[in-house]
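hiii so um. not sure if this is the right channel but i have a protein structure encoded as tokens and i wanna go backwards to a sequence. like what aa goes where. can anyone help
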């Protein structure tokens, strides 16, 4: 079947059923281009769901009119939805045609029986959210939609599967498996012609087979092709091939499909860990949610590509989807850019985590949703592991272990070329026991008196409980069904299990950023530990305030529940606009990828005050030497470095020297005073300067600067331009303490897809054309609607306007 884009010409409104319309007229439809997030434009309010970032839940309906030619009577027609959140119901000309409860599965709706040929037809999609997520889910048709048309004899969607069972330097065996369907009145015979081309477009291998297909009895065609001197896919050299499969009879091509794939090998053992193409690879991993910051849940291809590129630039080589299957656009980007993937199926199985979540549908739909995930992932070389779940509550009992076995074996039956894991939090199945352990020995009535102490105690308790005999015994079966034991916040088991379970291979499927130095040492020292996936690589909407740092003297019984302004988790190495935070540079140093030191400064306003934070928080630092405080104010400076010693200078004068490197957790700290000018850190190893980092105070007139990531775009709705808006001085130093409200105007064939900042505490929407900067920065996202010249103009009250031009071709 041939896919064609089906994203334009849609309308959306809050759902209005026929009975509701007796009470008054429905809201009008609004034109949209998919992918679209219907939740992002809703007004946040204290009555909204906190985990969703206080966005309201609701139901929505989309519709689109499309013409169906008369000659489609002799074809098969379907609509493919890559993702609808959530509880999708699909109607064609007001007749029910299909549904999908899970919000993250791609699904196909055959529509032949409902079409009016030679006429206009209407597709309508209803969806709803109802306290069904622990993070910002978004809502609506948030991933791509395709119209698929095929002949009576055809290759179904995702009907070409490519594997590389035998690979060496001289030759690779490429097995191309093609499913052929036929709905004609009698059997038919066609040639299956397959051609493999390399990245340069040169033909690398060809094959021709004959297949006879009977009506209603799909035939599987397996072709072994041989690619000489293959260019192998890896993180560093993500070389891709294309397999084109055509069905031909005496009249020519009957149908055609393509599969993009990579040639690579995977091996796994306790002595070498993970090997790709024979080379050991340690996973420098980032957990990521599915939202795209200021454009919400809309999965636009360029947004996914940019996210993967920035994560890779920050030192990551692997991502874990949290906690749902990734979309095709993200996987395509990972293939092209060289990013390994742990794709995760579910956040819950038979026990609910929220009142209306997927647990209600899991017993009925789990097999179909696993099939959808594997079908989507099968040809992507970036995917190396399937995770069957995250922090599943029932894993501590035999029924939970039995479910783990069912899911793992189902995945293996669908795809035995990757490994199966599960992100297991070893505390959650034993939560009552954990609470007792945390409170054990505390004075009566004082167990939870101090929020900071409680969070620290819980943080320690996770590792304590994880290493206990109780957990060892009660999780043995659940881990035994896996190829790789995924452990969330359980680094205490890494070396323990080397002795207790000598054949167990482990991955740190979820860890906290502040432990990356000790965790990474465990990864390096233990071959059976594959790597570490931090929570999180990229900040996300919802779970508001998870990684926030506050001050004890600001938290009172009156203010602590008032979290309505909280929007983001504030837990990522990279914020929602793509700006790297200090933790990201620290991690890069720990990974051994950066030799220059990095300066991070705690705000002078917080000096000497008790901080309140949870396990997922970094220190309250920014990389700036521009503060709205008088000279002489005390301040704490952190310098991250793998060198032996760091020297700190302010305006050329030595502030002090301090040891750094792994023995000191890659961190040197200095108590000093704020003096405007220049702050410099110099790192020394064996007495020789290894690198330096400089911060300068912003001075002089305030300027609004606009920079765009690319000045030439594709003239279609899959591309985006990211315009960074920064308040600086004449030398480019950022005024992080003089935030302004910035307005953005777009002229030409484009729309303002989103405008916002990384401020975790805000009421401002991302769908307006005005937004306030945060720490001197904001981000505008521009989406082209056709070819031509696009002008973006940004203004604020006391600066000259910033203007730039983008070309869509």
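sure thing!! here u go:
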């Amino acid at each position: 079947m041939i896919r064609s884009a089906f994203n334009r010409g849609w309308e959306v409104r809050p759902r209005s059923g026929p009975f509701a319309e007796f009470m008054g007229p429905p809201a009008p439809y609004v034109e949209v281009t998919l992918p679209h997030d219907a939740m992002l434009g809703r007004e946040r309010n204290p009555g909204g769901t906190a985990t969703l970032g206080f966005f309201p839940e609701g139901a929505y309906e989309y519709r689109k009119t499309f013409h169906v030619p008369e000659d489609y009577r002799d074809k098969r027609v379907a609509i493919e939805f890559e993702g609808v959140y959530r509880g999708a119901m699909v109607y064609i000309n007001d007749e029910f045609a299909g549904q999908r409860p899970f919000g993250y599965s791609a699904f196909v709706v055959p529509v032949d029986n409902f079409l009016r040929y030679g006429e206009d037809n209407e597709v309508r999609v209803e969806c709803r959210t109802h306290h069904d997520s622990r993070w910002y889910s978004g809502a609506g048709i948030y991933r791509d939609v395709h119209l698929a048309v095929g002949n009576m004899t055809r290759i179904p969607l995702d009907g070409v599967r490519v594997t590389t069972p035998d690979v060496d330097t001289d030759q690779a065996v490429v097995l191309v498996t093609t499913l052929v369907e036929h709905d004609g009145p009698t059997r038919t015979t066609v040639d299956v012609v397959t051609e493999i081309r390399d990245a340069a477009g040169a033909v690398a291998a060809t094959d021709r087979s004959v297949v006879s297909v009977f009506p209603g009895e799909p035939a599987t065609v397996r072709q072994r092709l041989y690619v000489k001197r293959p260019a192998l896919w890896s993180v560093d050299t993500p070389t891709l091939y294309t397999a084109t499969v055509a069905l031909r009879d005496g009249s020519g091509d009957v149908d055609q499909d393509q599969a993009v794939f990579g040639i690579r090998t995977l091996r796994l053992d306790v002595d070498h860990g993970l090997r790709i193409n024979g080379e050991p690879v340690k996973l420098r991993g980032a957990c990521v949610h599915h939202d795209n910051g200021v454009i919400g849940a809309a999965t636009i291809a360029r947004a996914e590509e940019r996210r993967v590129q920035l994560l890779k630039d920050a030192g990551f080589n692997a991502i874990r989807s949290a906690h749902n299957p990734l979309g095709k656009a993200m996987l395509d980007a990972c293939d092209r850019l060289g990013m390994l993937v742990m794709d995760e199926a579910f956040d819950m199985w038979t026990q609910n985590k929220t009142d209306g979540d997927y647990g209600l549908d899991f017993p009925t739909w789990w097999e179909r949703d696993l099939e959808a995930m594997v079908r989507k992932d099968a040809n992507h070389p970036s995917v190396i592991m399937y995770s069957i779940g995250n922090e599943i509550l029932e894993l501590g009992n035999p029924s939970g272990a039995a479910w783990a076995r069912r899911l793992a074996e189902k995945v293996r039956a669908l795809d035995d070329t990757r490994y199966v894991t599960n992100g297991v939090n070893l505390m959650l199945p034993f939560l009552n026991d954990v609470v007792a352990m945390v409170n054990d020995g505390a004075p009566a009535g004082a167990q939870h008196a101090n929020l900071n102490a409680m969070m620290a105690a819980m943080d320690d308790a996770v590792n304590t409980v994880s290493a206990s005999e109780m957990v060892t015994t009660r999780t043995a079966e659940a881990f035994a069904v896996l190829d790789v034991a995924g452990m969330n916040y359980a680094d205490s088991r890494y070396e323990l299990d080397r002795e207790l379970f000598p054949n167990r291979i482990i991955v740190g499927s979820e860890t906290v950023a502040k432990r990356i130095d000790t965790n990474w040492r465990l990864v390096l020292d233990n071959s059976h530990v594959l790597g570490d996936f931090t929570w999180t690589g990229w900040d996300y909407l919802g779970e508001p305030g998870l990684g926030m740092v506050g001050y004890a003297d600001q938290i009172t019984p009156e203010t602590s529940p008032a979290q309505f302004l909280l929007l983001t988790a504030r837990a990522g190495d990279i914020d929602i606009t793509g700006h790297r935070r200090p933790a990201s540079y620290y991690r890069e140093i720990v990974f051994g990828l950066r030799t220059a030191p990095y300066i991070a400064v705690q705000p002078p306003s917080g000096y000497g005050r008790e901080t309140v934070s949870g396990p997922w928080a970094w220190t309250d630092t920014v990389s700036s030497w521009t503060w709205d405080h008088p000279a002489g104010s005390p301040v704490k400076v952190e310098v991250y470095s793998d060198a032996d010693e760091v020297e700190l200078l302010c305006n050329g004068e030595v502030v002090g020297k301090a040891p750094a490197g792994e023995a000191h957790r890659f961190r040197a700290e200095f108590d000093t005073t704020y003096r405007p000018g220049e702050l410099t850190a110099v790192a020394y190893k064996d007495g020789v300067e290894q690198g330096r980092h400089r911060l300068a105070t912003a001075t002089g007139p305030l300027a609004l600067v606009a920079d765009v990531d690319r000045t030439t775009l594709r003239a279609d709705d899959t591309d985006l331009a990211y315009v960074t808006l920064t308040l600086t001085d004449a030398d480019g130093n950022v005024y992080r303490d003089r935030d302004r409200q910035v307005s953005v105007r777009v002229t030409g064939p484009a729309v303002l897809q989103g405008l916002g900042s990384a401020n975790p505490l805000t009421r401002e929407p991302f769908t307006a054309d005005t937004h306030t900067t945060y720490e001197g920065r904001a981000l505008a996202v521009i989406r082209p609607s056709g070819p031509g010249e696009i002008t973006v103009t940004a203004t604020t009250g006391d600066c000259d306007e910033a203007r730039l031009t983008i070309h869509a071709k």
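oh and Residues 441-456, 557-562 have pLDDT under 50 and may be disordered.
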